[in-house]
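Reviewer 2 asked us to include a model.

Predict the structure of this chain.
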Amino acid sequence: MNIVSVKVWGKFACFTMPNFKSTNSISSKVMTPTAACGALENIYWKKEMKYHVFEIHVLRPIRYIDFMTNNLKCFVDLKKSSLSVDSKECRIQKSSQILCDVAYNIYAKITSTDGNIIKHKDQFRRRVNKGRCFRRPYLGLAKFNAHFSNVDPSDRPIQENIELGSILRSVNHETDPISCSFFNAILRNGILIIDDEDN
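Predicted model (structure tokens):
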């Protein structure tokens, strides 16, 4: 009774690790649980409820492409009268390996401190049915917008088994410094299963 599901897809995705500090970044092979939670919260969020993602189905083959962006390494001093930045001096190119043409089915349990799990589930489902959201869901990075809809029963996960290594499970913003937990992820027949521990 407390389970919700949604299909998300898009042209590009990049699920980077918070401990990856280099200029260049490589996306993990599949959507992380934190990215999945973020997509759900962008569709429907209330402070008294929480999503616990327990399964992510990978619906399209895992494919990487190289992605180059121009970024600024300088910061603007808002106290100065001039807000101009010398782009030639401050420009830095960032090369990333991102995923392309992705689609996932996300399955999550809802917990709530107000005891209204059924109400929250119904609100979530209505929003998905009408294509409404608080903010547009995205696939790892805000510039990679995601489309979303109800799960299509005819969709089947890719038939691949991959040891994915350590993947981000959750981020605790209440600690100082912010703490992260990871888990050893394995894709079995295109399905990533996440246990409840620290999620």
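The helical segments are 33-43, 87-90, 117-130. The two ends are 19 Å apart (CA to CA). We have added this to the supplementary material.
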